From TrEMBL:
Matching InterPro entries: Aspartate_Ammonia-Lyase (IPR051546), Fumarase/histidase_N (IPR024083), Fumarase_C_C (IPR018951), Fumarate_lyase_CS (IPR020557), Fumarate_lyase_fam (IPR000362), Fumarate_lyase_N (IPR022761), L-Aspartase-like (IPR008948)
Species in which this protein is naturally found: Sulfuriferula multivorans
Domain of life: Bacteria
GO molecular function: aspartate ammonia-lyase activity
Cellular component annotations (GO), alphabetically ordered: cytosol
Protein name listed in UniProt: Aspartate ammonia-lyase
GO terms (BP aspect): aspartate metabolic process; tricarboxylic acid cycle
Domain Fumarate lyase N-terminal: 12-340
Domain Fumarase C C-terminal: residue ranges: 406-452
Keywords noted in UniProt: Lyase
Length: 462
């Protein structure tokens, strides 16, 4: 049986594991919120600890916090930021509104580490007190939303790198297949010629636009409300504390952190809603692209089969030799889950009341998951499938020559009425449009091939 120590908070005595670096309020939260079984996101934990470190330095400058206490708190924070004691951040992601339990988890762990380093004991909270010293000039209400913003800023480069990597691969494929003519399809019906390079180029451009939209949110996310304290008024803070704390965070994160409108930063999560919206937009585009790739790879004998995706695992427990487009099926599922996370964020953003939005713990968790899942899923799909796509050029050529929609190309050459007659004959006989126009003497087969190639390449092609 684990040994215990007894600590006290304002509600009375609490039993805490002897080897734990957290304290009474964290232990209470663990009992109160056995909900998801998920510990807090690591980027969020580190972001919150950076806030504690920045606050210690900012509070020391006007003499509110002694240099000895600042140094002890800073040393404790540095250990956590180096990757130690992460397992001591244990409060469930679904917890007390606004994140009080996580704030106290940080305060208690940092205080205990600092006190033991100074010769004290866990749970003694002297000379470093979790509330009076580690939490000096702070509140859950300004540290948690700031930590969420810092955490998503840490995740954003990883997400945009994954987007850029996938976009770059589509661009490479587009260049490689720029002359591979195929049948376009609208309404899932045969349409005029295009190239598979055009399709890939469209995917690349769309993803680049998604990346730019995500990156454009960085300035808003760098605007924080740290120093607003409990209600955005700066209660129990020194006059210059917000600016000093923001400056310290800018130094610690390498981001251009600045002070926002303190009341608004606590009331409104608009920037996080915008971030969630752009993540949703990315998921929507990835869903569409995944659907296209799965359809283009359908077959191999009875589907479109215009592309082949690299096999990464057997596809069936009963059908020998079957291989499925599993990486893009996976990406579809991740995207659907991300759409659900966005819906949850939307509800939580509008749920703020008066001076505070208390839905921040789950709001942050939903954003963290969406960003991590999409990052991992895109990287996996790019590395394991996209880079190995093989285009079946013979299949593309077969379909384009069978398409009655090629008669559309004849409108400007022989007129709509004659083109319609060619289309009718092709539809009725099953013969290619190319053969019919040559047989009727309307155009040579070679000239028709040039016309198809020009149409596939689009405006301005030679």
């Amino acid at each position: 049986m684990n040994e215990l120590r007894t600590e006290k908070d304002s509600l009375g005595e609490v039993q805490v594991p002897l080897d734990a670096w957290y304290g009474a309020q964290t232990a209470r939260a663990m009992v109160n919120f056995p909900i998801s079984g998920r510990s807090p996101d690591k980027d969020f934990v580190l972001a919150h600890v950076r806030i504690k470190l920045a606050a210690a330095h900012a509070n020391c400058q006007p003499g509110w916090l002694s240099e000895q206490k600042r140094d002890a708190i800073a040393a404790a924070c540095d250990k956590i930021l180096a990757g130690e004691y992460i397992d001591q951040f244990v409060v469930d992601r679904f917890q007390a509104g606004a994140g009080t339990s996580h704030n106290m988890n940080s305060n208690e762990v940092i205080a205990n580490l600092a006190n033991v380093a100074l010769g004290g004991e866990k749970g003694g909270y002297t000379p470093i007190n979790p509330n009076d010293d580690v939490n000096m000039g702070q509140s859950t209400n300004d540290t948690i939303p700031t930590a969420i913003r810092l955490a998503v800023l840490a995740k954003l480069p990883r997400l945009t790198a994954a987007v850029n990597s996938m976009a770059a691969e589509f661009s490479r494929l587009a260049e490689r297949e720029k002359d591979t003519v195929k049948s376009g399809r609208t309404h899932l019906q045969d349409a005029v010629p295009t190239t598979i390079g055009h399709e890939f180029a469209g995917y690349a451009w769309t993803l680049a636009r998604c990346e730019a939209a995500l990156d454009a949110l960085r300035p808003a996310l760098c605007e924080i409300g740290l120093g607003g304290s409990a209600a955005g008024t700066g209660l129990n803070t020194s006059p210059d504390y917000p600016a000093r704390a923001a400056s310290e965070l800018a130094h610690l994160t390498g981001e251009p952190i600045r002070v926002g409108q303190l009341v608004a930063q606590m009331q409104s999560m608009n920037d996080l809603a915008r971030l969630s919206g752009e993540i949703r937009n990315l998921a929507l585009e990835l869903t569409r692209i995944s659907n296209d790739l799965r359809l283009l790879a359908s077959g191999p004998r009875t589907g479109l089969g215009e592309i082949q995706l690299p096999p990464v695992q057997p596809g069936s427990s009963i059908m020998p030799g079957k291989v499925n487009p599993v990486m893009f099926e996976m990406l579809n599922q991740v995207c659907f889950q991300v759409l659900g996370q966005d819906a949850a964020v939307s509800y939580m953003v509008q749920a703020g009341q008066m001076e505070l939005n208390v839905m921040m713990p789950a709001m942050g968790s939903a954003l963290f998951d969406a960003m991590d899942w999409l990052t991992n899923a895109m990287n996996a799909a790019t590395e394991k499938n996209l880079k190995g796509i093989v285009v079946n050029r013979e299949r593309c050529a077969f379909f384009i020559h069978q398409s009655v929609a090629l008669a559309t190309l004849l409108n400007t050459q022989i007129g709509y009425n004659q083109a319609a007659e060619v289309a009718k004959e092709s539809e009725k006989s099953g013969r290619p449009v190319r053969d019919i126009v040559a047989e009727r003497g309307l155009m040579s087969a070679a000239d028709f091939d040039v016309l198809v190639l020009q149409a596939a390449h689009g405006v301005g092609s030679g």
